[in-house]
């Protein structure tokens, strides 16, 4: 079966310039008129498109189960050390954290946190504790 090399998440945004600055300055992405990527095309890849109206910008809803945002983008990282370093980096650059780091002890322990971009698209990060440190 043919393999897919990479993919991009497409986001309609209310202010393209503001979103481009966020993904460059806060997220550490390479930003062009075509994409915002971090860690190459096998890492985080986003296509930012200016919405015609603010009504077209529709992040996922807030979960009624735990009153937290449902991620629009989910990024997996290698281990908790990388996750903690990423959390520190994004927070130091002014990212708005909407889910503080927490550990799900069910099964193989999983740790995650989430931030939002200027349009409240939720970007979550998580991983297991394999090969930490």
Automatic annotation (TrEMBL):
Residue stretches making up the VOC domain: 3-128
InterPro entries recorded: Glyas_Bleomycin-R_OHBP_Dase (IPR029068), Glyas_Fos-R_dOase_dom (IPR004360), VOC_core (IPR037523)
Alphabetical list of Gene3D superfamilies matching this protein: 2,3-Dihydroxybiphenyl 1,2-Dioxygenase, domain 1
Organism annotation: Peribacillus deserti
Name of protein: Glyoxalase
PROSITE patterns: VOC (PS51819)
């Amino acid at each position: 079966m043919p393999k897919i090399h990479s993919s991009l998440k497409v986001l309609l945004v209310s202010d393209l310039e503001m979103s481009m600055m966020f993904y460059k300055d806060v997220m550490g992405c390479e930003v062009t008129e075509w994409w915002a990527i971090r860690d190459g095309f096998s890492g985080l890849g986003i296509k930012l498109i200016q919405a015609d109206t603010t009504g077209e910008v529709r992040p996922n809803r807030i979960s009624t189960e735990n009153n937290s945002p449902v991620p629009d983008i989910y990024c997996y990282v290698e281990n908790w050390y990388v996750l903690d370093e990423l959390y520190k980096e994004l927070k130091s650059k002014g990212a708005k954290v909407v889910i503080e780091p927490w550990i799900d002890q069910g099964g193989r322990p999983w740790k995650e946190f989430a931030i939002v971009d200027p349009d409240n698209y939720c970007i979550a990060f998580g991983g297991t504790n394999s090969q930490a440190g």
